[in-house]
Design brief:
By secondary structure, the chain is an all-alpha fold. The longest helix has 29 residues. The radius of gyration is 16 Å and the shape is globular. The termini are far apart.
């Protein structure tokens, strides 16, 4: 509390952290989820390709490039461009969602990795929210 009051950044620094086996039960992940949703909102056309990569274990949370890449790198792969060429979505290793993806390595799938499992659930929730908004907007157009 004292650090926050004095204006110091008290967020956890996960750089170099070994996250395999970390227990996330009870952790407040809402800020990370919200940041992940912001990334998805910036690249909606790539969401299903990202989902496929998560399900297939083709995420490497520590690399922006390569066949298996981190969040931003995978979006770039789906878009078939460089990770530095994503318009408003910029690589940012301090971004909460990107740091969360450090817990996912090549071969990690939702059934064997809690980070993959969590981001898949968040992605599916985001898709449902978008569908709901589109439905509500279409109903308003009909009235």
């Amino acid at each position: 509390y004292e650090g926050i009051r004095q204006g110091r950044d008290s967020r956890a620094n996960l750089e170099g952290a070994y996250l395999k086996g970390a227990d996330l039960k009870g952790a407040d992940l809402q800020p990370i989820r919200d940041d992940f949703w912001a990334v998805l909102s910036s690249s909606p056309s790539e969401v299903f390709g990202l989902r496929k990569a998560i399900v297939e274990g083709r995420i490497n949370g520590s690399s922006y490039s390569g066949e298996c890449a981190c969040l931003v790198g995978t979006i770039a792969n789906v878009r078939k461009t460089e990770y530095t060429n994503l318009g408003c979505l910029k690589p940012n290793s301090s971004r909460p969602a990107e740091r969360f993806f450090l817990g996912i390595q090549i071969g990690d799938k939702p059934e064997n990795n809690q980070f993959s499992n969590i981001v898949l659930k968040w992605l599916d929730e985001w898709v449902e929210n978008v569908k709901k908004v589109k439905f509500e907007l279409s109903e308003k157009d009909e009235t």
